[in-house]
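Example record

Each entry pairs one chain with its bound ligand, 6-O-phosphono-alpha-D-glucopyranose.
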Amino acid sequence: MSRLIVVSNRVSVDKGRGAAGAQGGLAVAMNGALRQHGGIWFGWSGEEVEHFTGQLTMARSNGFTTATIDLEPQDVEEYYNGYANRTLWPLFHYRIDLAEYENEFGMGYERVNERFANSLIPLVEPDDLVWVQDYHFLPLGERLRAHGLKNRIGLFLHIPWPPTRLLVSLPFHERLVKAMLHYDVIGFQSFEWLESFLHYCRKELNAGVDEQKGTVELGGRTVVARAFPIGIDHKEFMALGETEVARRAQVRLVGSARSRTVVIGVDRLDYSKGLPERIDAMERLFATKDDMVNRLLYIQIAPPSREDVRSYQEIRATLEQKTGQFNGAHSDVDLVPIRYVNRGFGRAELFGFYRAAKIGLVTPIRDGMNLVAKEYVAAQDPEDPGVLILSRFAGAAEQLTDAVLVNPLNHDEVTRALWTAIHMPLEERKARWRALNAVVRDRDVISWAEDFIEALKG
Ligand code: ADP
Ligand code: G6P
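Structure tokens for the complex follow.
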């Protein structure tokens, strides 16, 4: 069996109980896939050193090896905070208004991709499958080829792919996408993102696109481009749900809600997640319906993310102001309607919180997939399941069609969805949940990784 070499910016070993949770979907998913498959997980250590050396730190845990390198402060600024999170992330989430196009960011991004290629090459053996993750490394395949690597190399993009009209605003967009065509397989979270990618290749690169076969041909190379919707590690998550930690978390939340219906949101504090819009929807619900303070409790768990980037500082300030204002207006002496919590929780605790909540509110403005929606479904009590309200702009909406789907920008629609969810009869809740749960259980992270790896083997 071929070894798997996974490359991602963040390498995180889930420490299980009490692990900090602000790591996002990629880390959670790769932990699941590598535990199953074994191999090496290569990436940034998260540490900075004054001068880059490329020295590898190797460690072994959970059945796989991690190999990490430190970066220089300038790398982190230009590649991670800069090109990855001030240029590509906003552009790929349709926030062209927030995208910053600075030359230094682009140069830093290319420099770090080259550094990663250099450090990775000595680790790779001839039969290894190299699987690169996410928007931090779009040109890494091309860099590895430039160093003579002949192995099969795949890329999976965890975030959306933007419409061509937006992407062409990026300086050197052609160079970036042409570099991507040095991978053997490129995977997307949904058919919508895949279609946008194929559209770009056809229109801007004049490449040969075969939609049936899912291939793109340019300059004598053929690349497979397909949708591989990611899932959660269902088995592992359900096992966590059996623990005393999960049970205690559930009891604690239900008890403290004092008979109110609990609505839960769990998101990295990111402008793509639609958090201020959720409060606007709540505002309408509280304004139009009597006595909501006695009926509803909204818990928003939102660990801070990418705190050196200004747009993230701004979204945090906006949310603090909005929740403060909301609670000021709607609290009673002994009841506060929004609990806004800026920290991570262990995954077992999260399971308990999801289960305690009768409504899961997952309303990103754009999201590659959104694993929180799937975790919420998995954690429900089959005999008395809660209702998932899901943005139609999340990749997950292509699969989770039995959720209450909403346009997160239409506050009235979200308000109505909340009202519908509060009153949904048990039979309907059960029927929707059964359909949702079948998808979440059957299309898990293990089958996702297997599908991608099969395609990568060629
Ligand atoms: P993204 O990848 O953009 O962060 P996803 O919804 O796909 O969004 O994945 C988020 C992952 O991070 C989920 O597995 C979720 O459980 C986890 N997570 C988010 N917030 C927390 C938190 N406060 N504590 C623990 N885990 C969290
Ligand atoms: C999303 C991205 C990941 C990223 C994660 C957390 O899931 O797709 O690549 O790791 O967010 O963001 P961070 O910048 O903290 O790694």
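The domain at 4-231+445-457 is CATH 3.40.50.2000 (Rossmann fold).
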